[in-house]
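Sat 14:20. Reprocessing the chain from the morning session after the first attempt stalled halfway. Input below, unchanged.
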Amino acid sequence: MPAKIILNPYANRWGAGKLRERVAAVLQTLDYAFDLVQTEGPGHAVTLARQAVQAGYDPIVAAGGDGTISEIVNGLLAEDDAAPVRLGLLPLGSANDYIVQLGVPLDLEAACRNLVEARYERVLDAGRVNDRAFMNDVNMAFGAQVNVEAATIKRLRGSLIYLGGVFKALRHYHLPRVTFAWDGGLVQDKPIILAYVGIGWRTGGVFHLTPDAVQDDGLLDFIYGDAMGRLQTLRLLPKTFDGSHVHAPAVFSTRCTRLDVISAEPIPVLADGEIIYRDARELHIRILPGALRVLAGPQPGVRPGVSKG
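Finished this time. Tokens:
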């Protein structure tokens, strides 16, 4: 059975759609057996991935960004907590966080060769937030509001979109009070600016909110930041680029297998960079150890290097 390639034309602000013919041409040159389909809107990749599993395709390849990969992961994990087939990756997104972490080449032709050779298969964790699967992260409160704001920015590209979202969110974001319960831990009615759960260690192209996260250790890396003013937030923000923010007194971090989140007021929530709630009050997050078999690159991506200390 050939591979099923699911291409999201909207990825990278419609840039991925312009690369469809090039993707097909490169794979044909490499004598790769594949069937390429294009998504038609949000959620369509979930349906296409489920159908591909039922039809026996292996691997199922995400051609897009993190949102595309996340939808396909939801299709792969629709029936069980372990994917029945392999996941392949082609970098057509803006930040490409998951692909970078796995060392898949960002050059399209090199990524196609990596896919065809399929030499580096890794067994990686995934997670669920309520009934939705995720493979990289869950971002809550201010961090999620940044992405809400970033989605309204038209003139910027790549990681600059998210940095622009930070400054827009700072203008008016309200700090919620949240209760967290995890393996042996409890914090009640805590005023926070952000909360974040990472399986991976990079998000938004430049942010390393859980810099020491390990994608196959069976654990969620969880952090939250105490409520703070705009000036304090702007001072802390640059530290998220290299992961050194985890040593700030206002930031708490731990590892766990589950996390329950109860908010006294509605908060926005992202999974893998996509808005899944704008007004969540209750979240139940858990790890799915070894849920994915992923065709990775020859070496993991390079971490920022200033996290432990």
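The mean pLDDT is 93.
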